[in-house]
Design goal:
heterodimer, A: disordered N terminus, B: about 220 residues, 8 strands, about 30% helix, elongated
Chain lengths: ~210, ~220
C-alpha cells in the first residue's frame, strides 16, 4: 500500500504534535534525521514521509497513528458495544468483549478465524456478494441489514451495520457493529436469516466541494 | 462515476480537496505532473486503466473524509454523535437524537456537545485534569494525543432508564482534522429510586495515545 494518499494525515499529525510539544521544525527534523525543508514539506501536505521516516515518526510520536490497522484492532477490542473487525478474507481481526460474550467464546479463540465460523449457516451470502462487488476497494459506504441468528437453543435478533474503514497501512477493513433487539424466538432452527439488506454505494467520490 | 468529459473537474476537485499540488498527486498516481495537468485542462482523458486507478484511489480516500463520517454517524443504528474540535455536533444518529435531543424535534446538529453531557472531572496520567468534556481540546484530544475516553453513564428519562457505556474515539480524517466519534450502547435498568430524571456520569477514564496497547 502506498501511504502517499495520507499525505494530509501526516501533515496535520506532524504539525499538531510539533506545536503541542513546542518543537521547531529544526528540532523535529534533527530528531528524525531529515532536513528542516522536509518537515516543512510534510506539514504543507506536499509530501508524505517516506516509510522509514513514518516508522520513526510513529516511534517518536508514540504509536499515535489513529487510523492504522493496529489502532482499529484496539478500538474494536475495547468497544463497549457488539463489534467485530474483519479483513478482506472475512477473517476476524478483532472482537469486542460484548461480542465475544454473545458468541460464548473467548476472543483469542475467535481472532484469526473466518467470521462465518461463529455465525449460523446463511443463504444467500449477501455480504460475500458485496465483497465481490468491491467492498474492500471502497465501492460501498455502508451495508446494513436485519439479522435473525437462530442458534438452536436461542434466537438473537439484531440490526447490523457494516462499515468500510480505510487504513493507511492495510487498506480497507470491515467494521461490523450489531445492535440487538427483542424479536421472535425460533427454537430448533439453526440458520441466519437476513432481512432488509441494503448496500449503499460510496458516492462520496464526486462530492469534492 | 463521471463521464469521460467530466474527468477534468473530477481530478482537479479531488486533488484540491486533498490539498495536494499536481506534483504530489502525480506521484501518487504514478504519472508525470504534465499528465495531471493535461487531465485537469481537459486536453487528455485518463486511459481506462488509469480511470479505474483514479476511482479506487478516490473512493478509498473518500472513506476517511468528514463528509463520509457524518453520513456514517447519521445512518448508524447505534447511539452515535460526531463532534468537531469546537464541540459542535456535526452529525447524530436517530437514536442519539431521541435520547439526547431536546424532545422538541430540533436537531442535535449544530448544538454544543458539552451541553448534552453533564460535567465530570477527568484525571489523566495522574496529573492533568479537566472538569468538563468542553475542555477536550486542552488535553489534546483533537491533536491525536488521546486514544479513547470511556464514559460510564446512566440515563433516566421519562420513557425509561438505561445504563450506558459510551466511548469517545478520535477519528483522523483525510480533511486534516480529527473529529470525535461518540458511540453508546445502552442496557435497560430500573428507574432511579428517588425519581431522578436526567443524565448522570458515573466515571470517565481517559487513555493517552502513548499508553500502548497492553493494560
Amino acid at each position: 500500500m502506498t501511504d502517499a494518499r495520507f499525505v494530509n494525515y501526516w501533515a496535520s499529525f506532524v504539525s499538531s504534535y510539533r506545536n503541542l510539544h513546542n518543537l521547531t521544525q529544526d528540532q523535529l527534523a534533527e530528531r528524525l534525521n531529515v532536513s528542516q525543508q522536509t518537515v516543512s514539506r510534510w506539514e504543507a501536505g506536499q509530501q508524505a514521509p517516506d516509510p522509514r521516516s513514518q516508522a520513526t515518526l510513529r516511534q517518536v510520536l508514540g504509536e499515535a497513528d489513529l487510523s492504522s490497522k493496529k489502532n482499529w484492532i484496539e478500538r474494536v477490542r475495547r468497544a463497549s458495544g457488539h463489534e467485530v473487525l474483519v479483513d478482506s478474507r472475512l477473517y476476524l481481526l478483532s472482537v469486542s468483549a460484548a461480542m465475544a460474550q454473545t458468541s460464548d467464546k473467548p476472543p483469542e479463540q475467535m481472532i484469526g478465524k473466518p467470521y462465518a465460523k461463529f455465525l449460523p449457516p446463511s443463504r444467500p451470502l449477501l455480504v460475500e456478494k458485496a465483497v465481490e462487488d468491491g467492498f474492500f476497494e471502497g465501492a460501498f459506504s455502508r451495508l446494513s441489514y436485519g439479522a435473525q441468528l437462530n442458534y438452536g437453543h436461542v434466537t438473537l435478533n439484531s440490526h447490523v451495520d457494516v462499515w468500510p474503514v480505510a487504513t493507511p497501512d492495510a487498506g480497507v477493513l470491515m467494521h461490523v457493529v450489531m445492535t440487538f433487539r427483542k424479536g421472535p424466538q425460533n427454537p430448533g432452527q439453526n440458520n441466519l436469516v437476513v432481512s432488509d439488506f441494503v448496500a449503499v454505494p460510496n458516492d462520496f467520490v464526486g462530492q469534492a466541494d | 462515476m463521471p463521464d469521460d468529459n467530466k474527468w477534468a473537474g473530477f481530478v482537479r476537485a479531488h486533488r484540491l480537496a486533498q490539498n495536494m499540488n499536481q506534483t504530489a498527486f502525480a506521484q501518487l498516481m504514478g504519472v508525470s505532473q504534465q499528465t495531471v495537468s493535461r487531465w485537469e485542462s481537459g486536453s487528455q482523458i485518463p486511459e481506462p486503466a488509469m480511470q479505474d486507478k483514479l476511482r479506487a484511489q478516490l473512493s478509498i480516500t473518500a472513506l476517511n473524509s468528514v463528509a463520509y463520517w457524518r453520513s456514517r454517524v447519521q445512518n448508524a443504528a447505534s447511539i452515535d454523535v460526531l463532534i468537531a474540535s469546537d464541540m459542535t455536533v456535526l452529525a447524530a444518529s436517530k437514536r442519539a437524537e431521541k435520547l439526547l435531543g431536546a424532545g422538541d424535534g430540533s436537531a442535535l446538529e449544530g448544538a454544543k456537545f458539552h451541553t448534552l453531557v453533564p460535567d465530570h472531572e477527568m484525571t489523566m496520567d495522574g496529573h492533568a485534569k479537566i472538569r468538563s468534556i468542553e475542555e477536550l481540546n486542552e488535553i489534546g484530544f483533537f491533536d491525536g494525543l488521546i486514544r479513547s475516553i470511556r464514559l460510564q453513564m446512566e440515563w433516566h428519562l421519562a420513557k425509561g432508564s438505561c445504563a450506558c457505556n459510551t466511548d469517545l474515539w478520535p477519528v483522523m480524517t483525510s480533511d486534516q482534522v480529527i473529529v470525535g466519534h461518540f458511540v453508546g450502547s445502552p442496557v435497560p435498568i430500573p428507574a432511579d429510586e428517588n425519581g431522578y430524571q436526567g443524565i448522570r456520569v458515573l466515571s470517565v477514564s481517559v487513555r493517552l495515545n502513548k499508553d500502548g496497547t497492553d493494560d
